[in-house]
Amino acid sequence: MLKNRSAVVTGSTSGIGLGIARAFARVGVNVMLNGFGDAPTIVKLQSELAAETGVQILHHPADVSKADQVAALIKAAETAFGSVDILINNAGIQHVSPIEEFTDERWSAVQNIILNSSFHAIKAALPGMKARNWGRIINLVSVHGLVASPFKSAYVTAKHGQIGLTKTVALEVAETGITCNAICPGYVRTPLVEGQIEAQAKAHNLPHDRVIREVILAAQPTKRFVEIDDVAALAVFLCGDAAGSITGASIPIDGGWSAR
Fold first, then answer.
1. How do residues 64-111 score in pLDDT, each as one tens digit?
2. CATH code that applies to domain 6-187+227-259
3. 3, 163, 173, 252: which could join 145 in a potential S-S bond, CB 3.0 to 4.6 Å?
4. Catalytic-role residue among 24, 155, 187, 225
């Protein structure tokens, strides 16, 4: 179904992005990884995943906060693979602060890496998708594209913006064989979240299990982390033929958070 397709996954050297990249590779999709990290570690990751799956696994170090580097990322993937059939906009950062203390630099960084990079990647990838009359675009948004939390003004704004971008793109390409959707996870147990657990445990002088339940997962009714593999499986499904009529959707996978 997806065998021999090619994907670009931004922010995919760790966490959710890497999980999605692995899932696509395992169903026969060539993958362009993107993200920062130790060069030998990334090379090892590429070689291991390529050996496991038999597909091409490449890496491009584009800083997605910069429009020209996003365009270069898409062009490099098209040159290497012959096409970019699937685009996963996953790159992101977080900063927590009251609005009156939020620096302009932090605000701009969050918008550039999350919202602006999604726009520039879609803009660069769409011409090729339109020429082939097929494409799948997924914005990894977060439940914060659907609901807000205090002290996360830049992140919530960028994620709500991604929802609007998703809907607009879906309408523009509705007759072209291209779909555009958003996946909105709640808390997923990633290395970044593990660091937050450690920091909160120290700050509140609480054991890890209480931090997880009472702080990290306070808004997530299931009181369970969303699994990376579950998010990845949803992404793969949305790129398949069975999901061809799903477009412009914002799909929560959040343990009931947005049902409140």
1. 999 999 999 999 999 999 999 999 999 999 988 999 999 999 999 999
2. 3.40.50.720
3. 163
4. 155
Q: How far is CA 225 from CA 11, 133, 145, 215, 257, in A?
A: 20, 37, 18, 13, 11
Tokens, residue 104: 């302009």
**3-class SS of residue 125:** helix
Contact by Cβ (8 Å): 121, 8: yes
pLDDT single digits (tens) 157-177 = 999 999 999 999 999 999 999
Whether 155 is catalytic: yes
The ranges assigned to domains in the chain are 6-187+227-259, 189-225
- The amino acid at 5: R
What pTM does this model have?
Answer: 0.96
Count of Cβ atoms closer than 10 Å to residue 150 Cβ: 9
CA distance 95 to 110: 8
